[in-house]
Design goal:
The protein has helices spanning 2-7, 46-63, 103-111, 120-131, 191-195, 197-210, 227-235, 239-263, 279-292, 312-327, and strands at 10-16, 20-27, 32-39, 70-77, 80-81, 86-88, 100-101, 115-119, 140-145, 149-155, 158-159, 267-271, 302-305. By secondary structure, the chain is α/β, with parallel strands linked by helices. The strands form three sheets. The protein has a five-stranded mixed sheet. The chain has a five-stranded mixed sheet with strand order 11-10-9-12-13.
Length: 328
């Protein structure tokens, strides 16, 4: 095995998000040697997406000595099934929302290396457990706040996959049953519809339309407002933008209060663009959690922001899945 590791010292990790796909070539110590990225949404057909990914990968693969140096590839993807290597009915992927996509097999055939795939939030949780703030923890829940809301659940030191590979879809727990927002999954009132980056932008548009509060956001085209715009405005003391984060944190804290009841985690770890808002989002989450949680869980979990930069947690987690398939 040691000889094989010397001959093939790297694994490719792919953090496949609804907006961007970030690739990293990673060594056995968790050092990312080279990265590249493409726009996930730029391709309507999965075949075109894989072809564009391989073209981008060839450049960084050559930088580390060629494909003969690559042992395997690991993918973290929305609605990814660890058991089958497929993406199944992913609402945030143009080419993945209507059926089952054998993405691991497609990449394996295109690159000529073994490929494993897991849910993107699970990959982020694995990366955090090995390299980030969850090191040493055996029970935690990771919530990824990006285009959607994902979750990775670790109990007794093991990732929870369930009977079919899809355990941990906490972004699709229904939080608002009366007049709940439509979600990309086809249901109404899901956590994702409120607490994803797109959900935050949607809340901002609703508040602008229904409230008279002065706001820097009124200078922008409402249909083009992003969660980053809300964060920038809130950072400047904008009252309406702060209300948006209070509303978002209230729902997230309420959700965490429910999640604590089934796994009693040591920590809730938050990852993704929304965490850049810092205390503007974290303080409302903690306040709401304490208000709604059962007394026995009130002061037990920590509320932490990922200790890994950018998409590193997901890339490293995905690469760890790649190492596992060649170790088996």
């Amino acid at each position: 095995m040691e000889v094989q590791n010397e001959l093939k010292p790297y694994v490719i990790g792919l953090d496949l998000g609804g907006t961007n796909s970030v690739f990293g070539i990673v060594d056995s110590r968790g050092d990312i040697k080279a990265t590249t990225a493409i726009k996930t949404q730029a391709y309507e057909k999965v075949e075109d997406y894989v072809a564009a990914s391989v073209d981008a990968l060839k450049i960084i693969i050559d930088q580390v000595g060629g494909i003969d140096k690559i042992k395997a590839m690991g993918i973290g993807a929305p609605d990814g099934n660890y058991y089958t290597g497929t993406i199944e009915f992913a609402p945030n992927l143009i080419w993945g929302h209507n059926g089952i996509v054998p993405l691991a097999d497609m990449f394996s055939k295109a690159l000529g290396v073994p490929v494993a795939l897991t849910n993107d939030a699970n990959a982020a949780a694995i990366g955090e457990m090995i390299y980030g703030v969850a090191r040493g923890m055996k029970n935690f829940i990771m919530l990824t706040l990006g285009t959607g809301v994902g979750s990775g659940i670790v109990i007794n030191g093991q990732m929870v996959y369930g009977c079919d590979g899809f355990a941990g879809e906490l972004g699709h727990v229904i939080m608002r049953r009366e007049n709940g927002r439509p979600c990309g999954c086809g249901r109404n009132g899901c956590l994702e519809a409120y607490c994803s980056a797109t959900g935050v932008a949607r809340t901002a548009r609703e508040f602008l339309a229904t409230r008279d509060t002065p706001s820097l956001l009124r200078d922008l085209d409402p249909e083009k407002i992003t969660s980053l715009d809300v964060s920038i405005a809130a950072g400047k003391g904008d009252a309406l933008a702060k209300e948006v984060y209070d509303f978002t944190g209230e729902i997230l804290g309420e959700a965490c209060a429910d999640f604590a009841a089934f796994s009693s985690p040591e920590a809730f770890i938050f990852f993704g663009g929304l965490t850049k808002a810092g205390d503007l989002i974290m303080k409302p989450i903690e306040r709401s959690y304490k208000e709604h949680v059962l007394a026995i869980f009130k002061d037990k979990p920590k509320f932490l922001v990922s200790g890994l930069e950018g998409s590193s947690a997901a890339v490293l987690g995905a690469s760890a899945v790649g190492w596992e398939i060649n170790e088996a």
